[in-house]
Design brief:
about 220 residues; alpha/beta; TIM Barrel; eight-stranded parallel sheet
Length: about 220
């Protein structure tokens, strides 16, 4: 099987498990070559995710699509991220939001990163801190609040975790009705996330294959 057929088969398999037609599939392309992105784009994929700004800059220049940044953010990288990312899923600091608004050349869609356990090593803020960040986004010139993003801790039961995330999102949306979207779910749990209300899923290895095997 050639690479195009492999990607097409994997993509079809993932798409067949997306039970809600309103869910946005983001293919996470980190560490994979731009040629894979080009093939997937030719197969109809319109949304791609990157964790590294350097890769995102190169791939977004080669493939016209909606590009999402979802990695950990360093302040010194914000100007570079703003050059290519249409959507950012991992904002969790007030100073990053303020700086991003200054360096952005055009509008950027924002997901605030929620943390269920507030582990500083994993990123994200507690639900009680979301409003402060949301107000900064609403007061900005270039940032548009889309919703929240969350990756459940590995030791949390997936269904219970996604239900909690969904409940937090619903309560958050009561105060911020424009925050309609929930970015949650990856290759190993996106079906559960969708059942619990996720509107955006970030899938890499189920489509592109194991990164370990390719290294």
């Amino acid at each position: 099987m050639n690479r195009r057929d492999e990607l097409a088969q994997n993509l079809e398999s993932v798409q067949s498990k997306i039970t809600n037609s309103n869910v946005t599939l983001i293919v996470v392309a980190k560490t994979y070559p731009v040629e894979d992105v080009e093939v997937l784009h030719s197969l109809g994929v319109e949304n791609f995710g990157e964790n590294r700004s350097e890769e995102g800059l190169i791939k977004s220049a080669a493939v016209p699509a909606t590009w999402h940044f979802q990695g950990g953010i360093q302040s010194r990288k914000l100007r570079d991220i703003a050059r290519w990312a249409t959507v950012i899923h991992s904002l969790d600091k007030s100073d990053h939001l303020l700086k991003l608004d200054v360096v952005a050349r055009s509008s950027i869609d924002i997901f605030l990163q929620l943390s269920l356990d507030k582990d500083p090593q994993r990123g994200g803020v507690g639900q009680d801190e979301l409003a402060t960040l949301a107000d900064l986004v609403l007061a900005s010139a270039h940032l548009r609040l889309q919703g929240i993003m969350c990756v459940p801790p590995v030791d949390f039961a997936p269904t219970a975790a996604f239900k909690e995330i969904s409940e937090i999102h619903q309560n958050f949306q009561k105060s911020y009705p424009m925050a309609r979207y929930l970015s949650a779910g990856m290759s190993n749990d996106f079906e559960i996330a969708i059942d619990c209300g996720a509107t955006h899923i970030r899938v890499g290895s189920s489509i592109l294959g194991s990164r370990t095997a390719r290294q």
